[in-house]
Fold:
Amino acid sequence: MEHDASAARQRLLDAALRLFAARGYEGATTREICEAAGANLSAIRYYFGDKAGLYRATFCEPLGEPTDPARLADMASLTLRPALVAFFREFLLPLKHSEAVQLVMKLHFREMIEPTGLWQDEIDAEIRPQHDWMVARLCAELGLDAPDADVQRLAVAVISMAVHYYVGRELIDLLAPDLLASPNAIDLLAERLAGYAVSMIEGERLRRTGEGDAH
Amino acid sequence: MEHDASAARQRLLDAALRLFAARGYEGATTREICEAAGANLSAIRYYFGDKAGLYRATFCEPLGEPTDPARLADMASLTLRPALVAFFREFLLPLKHSEAVQLVMKLHFREMIEPTGLWQDEIDAEIRPQHDWMVARLCAELGLDAPDADVQRLAVAVISMAVHYYVGRELIDLLAPDLLASPNAIDLLAERLAGYAVSMIEGERLRRTGEGDAH
DNA sequence: GCAAAATTCAAACGTTCGTTTGATCGTGCA
DNA sequence: TGCACGATCAAACGAACGTTTGAATTTTGC
Structure:
């Protein structure tokens, strides 16, 4: 039966995403998921083999593209501020999307604290390229041939400002609920983060030249 | 029997801290904890009532002082950069301490993603005071009577740089292992983060005056 | 040295979990 | 109509979990 693409399968994926994100892999029970999906217990075995298969599908399926590497390449041709605005827009984009994508992101950050094995793939496919891009860009901006510890610190600091809006989303909604209230607010946030990054980079450039003089 | 303060109780706390941090509250089993502690299953009931009681003790006990509020008050008398250096030093201090404190911090950040109820207390006792202090300091620095969204964004950005070294510690050890390698490295990190923050604040001041001119 | 309390122990209890089973229903095709 | 297959269903299985029990063992106070 493929004419309907099996509605139950999709309902299972939706319910599983919601519950895995809310309670974690261990915390979400198969009975709970099936009940939320209006499906029978055996449906998990039928469509996904077992709970782990359902989790894997939930984790991987809703993600269309793994942060198109071309996007990062495109940013290379921009000057610093527009490149950073584009970077942060790209990074924060899922926050504007449907609830489902936010839940997938939450699943991904869950992997940071409780790795199920998919975390390593995530690092290789998404995080390291982004980090490397940022490091390379900072080296170019600061006129360095190779990254040193200060560049690494700066890269981590710049990216961490954006990461925080995923990891600490609930906290931010509590402390400053306006910051992610609308797509416009998220665009503005990307602009501000880019501004912060520009300031940090400029400050680092000054620190380096000043230090060069001092020594 | 209080002369020994019961070695088994302490061994349980140590093992529980390690396992709760590694596998989460649900993931760590009482049998596993007792085996690691060299204690009998019933020891949990005997000393802590049940698993939740053990978790609560593990969560709260190793923390001596809840970020002494006096420390925050002290920073008020400092100029911007020294105040920020002091803030980040205070914030990153646990990273220099023993492994146990790091594990407690990991437990605390676990609460962010998987709240067990202690998370709300954590917000009230630790996080909100720090956030409010930072917002107030930024308002003073920017000459504002009341915080607006831009100040909130800036405060979140400044604090997030430091938070990231807890939440994403494993990732940082992978991408840039030097940054947390020694107590000296952590002191240097606090200085650099303070420098970043100063740059961001200065940039924000310029943006605000420029924006005021433009309108 | 002895009774009482503190602590430890092996064994089992009841529950919940993920999984499996075998039957049943509905639809498409000969 | 009858068969085959996709899909669903109620019911149960075995394992692992947190918890409880009641007795054994060790330590304390006198």
User: Anything to note?
Assistant: The mean pLDDT of chain A is 86.
